[in-house]
Amino acid sequence: MSTNTVIDVDGLDVTYGDFRAVKGLSFQIERGELYALLGTNGAGKTSTLEVVEGHRKATAGTVRVLGSDPGDRAAVRPRVGIMLQESGFAPDLTAAESTRLVGRLSGREDSVDRVLDLVDLAHKADTRVGQLSGGEKRRLDFATAVYGSPELLFLDEPTTGLDIQSRDALWEVVHRLREDGTTVVLTTHYLEEAQQRADRVGLMHQGTFRHQGTVSELTRSLPAGIRFSLPPGAPTPPAASVAQGDGTYAIETFELQQDLKQLLDWAHTHGIELDGLSAAPTRLDDVFRAIGADSTAS
Ligand SMILES: Nc1ncnc2c1ncn2[C@@H]1O[C@H](COP(=O)(O)OP(=O)(O)OP(=O)(O)O)[C@@H](O)[C@H]1O
């Protein structure tokens, strides 16, 4: 383990009775990384994170967080911020009181006004949590997680229920924290978000990693796609084009730029306008679909 390793998981097993939900999982997350832990439903992400966050004991294997046992709350808590999927705020406390309470428990120094302002909730400081909207509660969860700028930040489905402005604002705060060296562990079902934000992705299925690496490493094994339609009477398009049942053509390619150029040159030569032309790089969604197809086949 290097001195820059923030999370070190080695041979992690989590079992429930006879059921082995996490099977010998190993991974490291380095300082300053944004690591997205993704997976199919029931893959074992929550079970893994519960151990890493110190809420559950590993059945087997070793887990170190910032060099400590994650169960050692006194060592770990002041350095870690956690935004859970469901917050446990008392509904009759105000937003400011909740932030102050969680902030005090974290052991970090900060100002309640500052963090509420970060998530645009300053005007709701004296509103009871029970009277906040779903999106406002989510923003309060985030505010309490980033209180005191933790070294390590867990974001569990952070943008679910947030409108686009609030999402952008949240990612802006994360961006600034990362500039100061904060390490971020993200779980999300918004794959586009992971694709856009993550330095590395761990993709779990049935208790183990199916893939781990950068987004481009994960998507490299699958082709990108070009789609278009042709006007009636057009000549046959380049050989890689495959007619779809719906009158459109598709080209699956590992050489997106080259094949797109060839298609455009062909269209230009024949004076043809390609209707509904789109060229899309491989997305994480496609990697997920491939896992689904693979499991069905096996
Ligand atoms: N307390 C429990 N008792 C028994 N089985 C459990 C328990 N918690 C989780 N499991 C099982 O362990 C497996 C992994 O669950 P886990 O919640 O870790 O998955 P996940 O990747 O977070 O899934 P999702 O994306 O659906 O939330 C699932 O098959 C689940 O049914």
UniProtKB/TrEMBL annotation:
It is found in: Cell membrane. SMART domains: AAA. Keywords: Antibiotic resistance, ATP-binding, Nucleotide-binding, Transport. PANTHER family: ABC TRANSPORTER ATP-BINDING PROTEIN. Gene3D superfamilies: P-loop containing nucleotide triphosphate hydrolases. One of its GO terms (molecular function) is ATP binding. This is ABC-2 type transport system ATP-binding protein. PROSITE patterns: ABC_TRANSPORTER_1, ABC_TRANSPORTER_2. Pfam families: ABC_tran (PF00005). It is a peripheral membrane protein. Residues 7-231 form the ABC transporter domain. Its main location: membrane. CDD domains: ABC_DR_subfamily_A.
